[in-house]
Specification:
The protein is built from 9 helices and 13 strands. It is α+β, with helices and mostly antiparallel strands. One of its GO terms (molecular function) is RNA binding.
């Protein structure tokens, strides 16, 4: 009976010409599905390419609602901007909804993230082939043979918000004040810390302060642990063992599928190159880490429907892996 009342109310609203159907951004909120429903690209035209539906028990971050007195919510059903679909609000339970201020997308407000990105640097490839590499003190030390880095290092752990694209960051928050024990813990995995903390300070001010679940020591220690877990994984070892040579893009993704027991796991990993040289691996992670400290534990089976696009993604089948201290 309640459901019929909601439908009747929604139908009545649809007949009122003065009620705009303008979508408004949500700065926070989740939608937990309670009944199977179609997921539309356009709820007005009832278009549903691929026949996508949402299933009871699944929970999604809300990107938009169709108006502040909403009957439709727009959710990310697959992991990318083009995977945003409209679902009738009556198909689930809305929790924690916050509407962004008019004209704002809340892209610099802490704790509005809906996912994370872990960026792991292949330091030799970055130092030798990225235009920003040569001036870094750790890269200069590697070139002189004073420092050897033959494992993956931490670029950053980035809270992410799909509605903001790549612009979620630089939130207000505390300054970086790491314990010395944490600095020592980070150094081997973020080699700029051998020389100063400017890069770490940049990562904290741009990304780390956009979450408040962890202080700076906890944040960097978790990020390092996640880097270690990838470095020691079959896919990470495959790259490390072929330093000075090349790897197969296909074999890299096959190793990820084997380790995680699901071919879709490869969609969460992206190889970033300068030319045909690897310089970074980026991993798409869910919003919540659930107390896990390994990539396999954090990901579980939370895989993207398809890999996100990036213009710097390695395109060739053979990817060259620079070795520490080697040029060309």
């Amino acid at each position: 009976m309640a459901r019929l009342a909601v439908l009747a109310f929604a139908s009545a609203l649809a007949l009122i010409p003065t009620q705009p159907a303008l979508a408004v951004d949500a700065s926070a909120g989740s939608f937990t599905v309670t009944q199977r429903c179609e997921a539309f690209q356009s709820f007005k035209n009832q278009t549903n390419p691929g026949g996508v539906s949402v299933q009871p028990g699944r929970s999604y971050a809300i990107a938009e609602v169709n108006r502040e007195a909403y009957q439709w919510v727009r959710i990310d059903v697959g992991g990318g901007r083009k995977d945003l679909r409209w679902v009738a609000a009556e198909c689930g339970r809305v929790e924690g909804l916050q509407i962004a201020q008019p004209g704002a997308r809340a892209c610099s407000v802490a704790d509005q993230y809906d996912s994370h990105v872990l960026a792991l640097t292949w330091q030799p490839g970055f130092c030798e082939h990225d235009r920003n590499g040569p001036g870094k003190p750790e890269c200069q030390a590697m070139g002189k043979g004073e420092l050897k880095v033959d494992h993956f290092t931490l670029h950053g752990l980035w809270p992410n918000k799909q509605a903001c694209g790549i612009d979620y960051g630089s939130c207000a928050g505390p300054a970086l004040e790491l314990d010395q024990a944490t600095v020592d813990y980070i150094k081997p995995w973020m080699p700029n810390f051998h020389y100063d903390t400017r890069f770490g300070n940049h990562e904290w001010k741009k990304h780390g302060v956009c979450q408040t679940a962890m202080d700076d020591d906890q944040y960097f220690r978790l990020a390092v642990d996640l880097v270690k877990s990838f470095n020691d994984s079959p896919a990470g070892a495959y790259i490390r063992e072929n330093a000075g040579g090349s790897v197969s893009r296909t074999q890299f993704y096959e190793k990820l599928a084997d380790e995680h027991g699901n071919k879709a796991a490869a969609n969460n990993f992206q190889l970033i190159c300068t030319g045909d040289y690897l310089k970074e691996v980026r991993v798409a992670l869910p919003r919540d880490f659930k107390g896990e400290r390994s990539l396999k534990g954090v990901l579980g089976q939370d895989f993207l429907a398809e890999r996100r696009s990036d213009r710097s993604e390695c395109r060739g089948e053979r990817i060259r892996i620079e070795a520490s201290g080697m040029a060309g």
